[in-house]
Structures are given as C-alpha cells and as structure tokens.
Amino acid sequence: MAVDMVLKDGIFIENGRETVRSVAIEARKIEGIYKHGDEPRHRDSIDCRGLYILPGLIDIHVHLRDLKESDKEDYETGTMAAAAGGVTTVVDMPNSDPPVLDKKTLDEKIARARELRYVNVGFYSGISSIIEKFDVQMIRDILGLKVYPHAPLDEDTKYTRERIRECTRLAVASDLPLLFHPDLPASMKAPKNMEEFFLAHSCEDEVKSVQSFIDAKVEYEARLHVCHVSCATTARLIQENRAEDTLTAEVTPHHLFLSGGDFPHDDGLAKMLPPLRSPYDNKMLMEGLRQTCAIDCVASDHAPHKKWEKTAPFLKASSGIPGLETTLPLMLTEVFEKRLPWIDYLRVCSSAPARILGLETKGILTPGYDADIVLARIQEGTITGENFFSKAKITPFEGRRVLARVITTIVGGVVVFDNDEFVTGPGIAGKVPVQKS
Ligand code: DOR
Ligand code: ZN
Ligand code: ZN
C-alpha cells in the first residue's frame, strides 16, 4: 500500500541532533520516520534536501478579531499569517467584539473560522460577571477559560479575591485550564501621562496578580496558565511555585527580544500590554524559558490593530502588535546563532504548548501524531511588515535581521503554503474548533 506523501531527505531533529530523515504522511497523520532509501511507496513527495522538517508552531495566544473587528483582522488573513509564519495551530482569545461570554458568540466565531481558516483554530471563552451564566455547552469547544483582571470582558466584573476563587472553581469543574492576563484592576482612569501608564502596569502589579491566582490555584487544585510573563520578578515567583502540569506560563518574542529603551518614548508602535521592560528582564525571561523551567512556551500574543491606531502618540495608541509571522524566524535565529539548543526550540514552540492545552496528538513529529509540519531553511533576511499576510503591518521588529525562512506549511497532511503562495483555498485544511484529545 502506498502512503499519501513522503517528505524526503530533510534535516530532521532526533534526540536534539540533526539527522537526514524522510517523514511519511498517511490519512492526515504521521505514518513513520524513515532513513534514506527505506521510505514506503507513496502517491506524492516533496524533496526536502536542505530543508528542516519541523513540527508546526502551536501558538496558544492570538487575537484573530473578526466579527465586528474584521477591519483589524479576520479568520482568513489571521490564519494566512499563521500559515505563512509556520504556525499550524492557533488558539483565539475571547476579547473580541462581541466578547466570547456566551455560546452564541462562540458558535459565530467557530462558523466564520471554519469557512475561512488555513490552519487549525481553537478557542477560549471568557467568564461573565455572573458566574452561573456560564454555559457548560461551550466546554467541549474551548481549550481554556481566559480572564483579564485589568480590563474585564464583562465590564461590571471586579477581580476581588472571591471572584478569582470563583473563576478557579469554574475551571476545575470544567476540567479546563484558567488562563489570565497578569495585571491588577486599574486603580485610575485613562493615564494622563507616561508615568501613570507605566505605574498602572508595573512589574510589582504583575507579580501581585500572579500571586493572587496562585493562592486560589493551591486552594482548589486548579490548572493555571500565566499569559505573557514580562518581568524577571514574575519569572522568579513562577519558578518558586513551579508545578509541571498545574502551573504553566508563556512568554512573547517581544518580551524576550525587545526592551522599552529600543524605541522613542512617545512612539505608539511598540505599545503593548504588558509593556516592554528592561534588557535585564529580557535576559531573565530567556533564562526562564531555557534553563530554570519558569516558563514553558513561547506565544505571540498576535494583536492586530489599524495603522492609525499604531501611528498615534504613545498614550493614544492601541496596545498590541502582530506576531504570527515573526515568531518562527526569531526563534529559529536563536537556534542558528547557537543561543537556543534544538531540544529547547522544539519544546517551547510546539510540544509544550500542546501539552498545556491537552492536545495529545499535536506538537511532536512522531507516528500517529497529526501531520502539522513546517519546512524551513536557513536564509538571511529582514523582517518587513509590508510583506505580512496579516492586515496589521506595523511591527517593532521592522528591519531586524533573521536567519530563517518558512518554505512550506502542511496542515493535517495538506500543503497549504508553499514558496510564498497559498496553494489551497480557505476552509480546506485544519480543524475548527480544535478540541482536547
Ligand atoms: O497588548 C495587548 N493587546 N495586550 C492585551 O492583553 C490585549 C491585546 C489586544 O487584544 O489588543
Ligand atoms: Zn493579555
Ligand atoms: Zn493577548
């Protein structure tokens, strides 16, 4: 019997070392990994000589907007950006317009994403102010519950100690992780100056927020995931409370590689929440990711905004930057410049995010797992926002030299993106919604 496809003679990472292997794909799954000459008969093949065969990235923190904010991004452009960036699974945040607080909105997002997707799309739900309103019918279609103490999705909500405990209990009862944006409820209205902005989103507040969620997690034995850790002090607190399956954390490439001083202070293009911190924080976050196990994975926090919202002066600008098309080149550059071993790259970009969300057949290239694969090569280039498939084209990484390029992206055994072009239409490859295995 012939298999569907063989990716032939690529550079394949086995036990952290580069080898030459062929990857066979059958019925959307990886059928086997073969040495040169041992490949099974196949209907189709791709010559992968000189190309790395890597698991597609799993980005567990993206904002694909759509619905009333389709002018910022929709499921088509957002998942095209993912595929072009070597990201084969994205998980969409609930702070959309309207926010995901009920099944109707969740179903609308699922229907749109199903029609327009180029990659696998999973979802999170928020939690409305009246916790009893949570519709348990949503559980099978979401991968976690996400809360924003500094800017609740349901405006009346106050993130008191009791509210955090309620959310934690709901996550336990739903058998889902509780994800949170670590920051404290705003004590003042819109900041009038830069000092007020940074004071309202300080490292001290990030640490206090994480501590309050850890207290509730311990009380109810919940699974807690800390979004976009930005401070060395927060990484240390997480490390001290480290628990492999029940306390996990992510870091964004911008908090790893950029610091506040890299940009003019009144420039809105690098405004995000949490804000960029110091070079010391960059260093300790990378250490947290590589060595101390404080941080499990990388996630982009892809947060598209319109051009005028990013070119506005800092205080008026919107927070957030596009990230789906920059994570892989930036992280592979760390590998190629010998700052990140392969084994860590594979863990932080693919296998750990799959593990955090319980995606048991994703994140590793091994028989029986989903054929979500990226073929990439070493190639020098510069990040250029104009070339993004995302509607958001302003990036603080503009002009940065990178050493890696995505050549082909395969989602569930289907070649979606190849040599800068989309070779399948929307709504064909990928699963929507991604569900726990
Ligand atoms: O910078 C950010 N942008 N941080 C967030 O937490 C939300 C995001 C957005 O949705 O724009
Ligand atoms: Zn956030
Ligand atoms: Zn976010």
Tell me the strand percentage band. Answer: 15-25%
Ligand catalogue: (4S)-2,6-dioxohexahydropyrimidine-4-carboxylic acid, zinc ion
Q: State the shape.
A: globular
Report the structural category. alpha/beta
Distance between the termini: 28 Å
Can you count the helices?
Answer: 11
Assembly status: single chain
Please, what is the average pLDDT?
97
**Whole-angstrom Rg:** 21 Å
Largest sheet: 9 strands, mixed
Order of helices and strands: EEEEEEHEHEEHEHHEHEHHEHHHEEEE
In short:
By secondary structure, the chain is an alpha/beta fold. The protein contains eleven helices and 17 strands.
Primary descriptors:
nine-stranded mixed β-sheet, binds (4S)-2,6-dioxohexahydropyrimidine-4-carboxylic acid, TIM Barrel, 2 domains, 17 strands, single chain, Urease, subunit C, domain 1, globular, binds zinc ion, alpha/beta, 11 helices, 437 residues, five-stranded parallel β-sheet
